Amino acid sequence: MVSGWMLALAALLLLAGLGQRFAFVLAALFVEILGLGLVAHRYRSLQRGTE
Amino acid sequence: MNLAVCLLCIILVPLAAAGLALIHQGLGRSRSAAHAMLATLCALGVSAIVFVLFGSAWAGYTNGLAHTLQLAGNHWDWLGAEPFFANGLAPGLLRSPYPALVLALQMFAVGLASLIPISAGTDRWRLAAICISSALFAGVIFPLFAHWVWASGWLAQLTPLFGLPPFTDAGGAGVLQVVGGLTALSVAWILGPRQGKYTDKVATAIPGHNIVLVLFGCLLALIGWIGLESAASMLFYALNSIQIIVVTINAMLSASAGCLAAVLITQIRYRKPDASLSANGWIAGLVAGSASCAMVSPLAAFFIGLVAGTLVTFLVETLELRLFIDDPGGAISVHLGAGLWGLLAFGLFAPTAGPRSALLLAQLVGIATLLGIIFPLVHLGNLLLNKLIPFRVDADGEWQGMDIRELGAGAYPEFVVHADEFVPR
After folding, report:
1. Which residues have CB under 8 Å from B370's CB, separation 6+?
2. Does residue B101 lie within any of the structural domains?
3. Which of B371, B373, B379 to probe the A interface (max A CBs under 10 A)?
4. What is the pLDDT of residues B161-200, one digit of tens each?
5. Is the ipTM of this structure higher than 0.90?
6. pLDDT tens per residue across span B214-228
7. Taking CB atoms and an 8 Å limit, are B372 and A18 in contact across chains?
8. Could you give the number of structural domains in chain B?
9. Is residue B116 within 8 Å of residue B29, measured between CB atoms?
10. How many domains, in total, are found in chain A?
11. Which residues, 6+ apart, have CB-to-CB distance to B201 below 8 Å?
């Protein structure tokens, strides 16, 4: 999730075009949601273990 | 800025806290009702003390002292550098009341946001753990993001830094609601579901014990929300006191649209309107509308509320049935889900002189910051605190109820507490 945020910041710092920045920030959000999904998966596995 | 009007609006904010408290205690079990209300008072108290003594120094205010980083030739304002313990506030009042007004509003705002995770941890989160988690929230997490957005931090400075419009959150949809919602998600994951919630991968409905208080809480929350949005817009976005009328109209429209959307959807799906989901729809409308406040038209506010109410009914079900997250008060769906939608909706509907995509991009950068840095910080902090003071009550305590276990007396001693017989879905 932190990598996603870094990607968003890097896009703002390194890219100039609005379209390119938009695409990279969207990609960054996708990375963050992927990270959130992995955390959710880990907690679900832990729950299964205690059931 | 009209000082008296602003102060009056700030004084209304605790009503929103009262509303949220009634909602989360009503949606919990009767055997944890007194605990939920006491937890609310403790969280408000701890947040206020920690924020005024420490957090306010890091939250800062516009044109106040700040720590800056030199990066790529630009100054990044990343943290306030005001004195601790609110030193200098009283003598400075005569020069300008602005810092004191900001402190007063944020003191209530941080308390309101710290109540959101209590809703997700209802029936199993220990009082001591609630207090220590609220201290972390008010001392570190809230001040950090509040500074970035409301005190000329880097998110409010996207124009000089990157040539984008500033990230805007007029009434606290991000600063309060999403940050509180992310904390609720972290707490719900750490605590795990209540006993008996999931059996053989099937969710069991554990109904709230007092829906009348929940619905009354919605009405109290409306008044508090109008105060919060008005005061924040005046202090951080230079809103004229006359424009409070538009804030009031928009807040009522978005809350109504959210509630009616939930009523209609539950009527269609379950053949009867669901009162608790409709209450969640009402609050979701308020949450989503608070990013824009008076900056969008009443029609846009209505649409924002409508989408928020619809979103919440599906999110509550998805979290409970598909992701197996037990959130008794629906805090994650309402505050995180609707808050994120509200921030995005500002980019879609707010008037702009430049290209719409630039405004939308600025809002997306704010959302990416919330998910990419604030959530990991919150979750890491809560995981460490959980090692220090275990968050979850033991199995016997959960069965007895938090009232008896932690307070030694029930909220309703003259009534017989119902048995653990719930209808499986």
Report:
1. B145, B174, B178, B179, B182, B340
2. yes
3. B371
4. 999 999 999 999 999 999 999 999 999 999 999 988 888 7
5. yes
6. 999 999 999 999 999
7. no
8. 1
9. no
10. 1
11. none
